[in-house]
Amino acid sequence: MNPAPQIVTTVAELHHRIAAYRQDDARVGLVPTMGALHAGHLSLVTETQNRADVVIVSIFVNPAQFAPHEDFERYPRALMADAEKLGLDGETDLIFAPSVGEMYPPGFSTCVEVGGPSRGLETDIRPHFFSGVAIVVLKLLLAAMPDVATFGEKDYQQLLVIRRMVADLGLNIEIVGAPIIREPDGLAMSSRNAYLSHDERRIAGQMNVVLKGLIAELRDGKTITAVEETGKRALLQAGFSSVDYLAVRNAEDLSPLASLDRPARVLAAATVGTTRLIDNMAV
Ligand code: PAF
After folding, report:
1. Which residues line ligand 1 (CB under 6 A)?
2. What is the whole-number distance in angstroms between the Cα of residue 32 and the centre of ligand 1?
3. All domains of the chain, ordered by start, with CATH?
4. pLDDT tens-digit profile of 179-200?
5. What is the pLDDT of residues 144-165, one digit of tens each?
6. How far apart are CA 118 and CA 162, in angstroms?
């Protein structure tokens, strides 16, 4: 068994370790996470290891991306268990697990607003979310200056926002999007699935079934508007208590589509019990 990777908690230590990797001409990869790692995260590590000599996993539950009424306090935190999992997996070289004070020292006042793909969908419901993600991801990228950084397609809009930011700021970092990893019933893996009761878990497993059904209907020639309406109804009938959005969008920039004349993505966010779940699929 591999030992658990070492954990560094300050940007200064991280710089020191990265300088040593760079001396050996290593290509550095970063996997930003909020911890509570599952097989989806481990797949990001594997994607990164295929493209880099050294893999750093950051674990930081970022307060800036949670609104006051959201689940920052109850978000699962399991640093030692995460380190053990990464050790067993054997593909991670270093864990960066900073404190909130390390990332946001007193007086911190900078924010990053990304336009383009951040408009609509998640932003309609969580207006604070992408500025919180953008500032932390930018800080992590600047701290590690990796050659490659990997994000899951599960958070598809987030992936496009990060790609936009990295391109707009001219950062020389390859942003890799890794496919969604699913449970046997198709539920997209997420740290928040841990919140689900037995009954809610069964309902949650219907989201991907609904999305697949909609894609089949689109292929049969149903209009986007009709499919979006059917999809919302189907999620409510499956037992979701509310649907924030179910939308078929341009896969490249998430702009609305009048017809399926280019690659598209169907994206959904809905709540079961007190847990908000998101999923998406290529059409
Ligand atoms: O997707 C996540 O886990 C987070 O939003 C990220 C990218 C690690 C930023 O906190």
Report:
1. 32-34, 62, 65, 133, 136-137, 155, 158
2. 6
3. 6-178 (3.40.50.620), 191-282 (3.30.1300.10)
4. 999 999 999 999 999 999 999 9
5. 999 999 999 999 999 999 999 9
6. 9
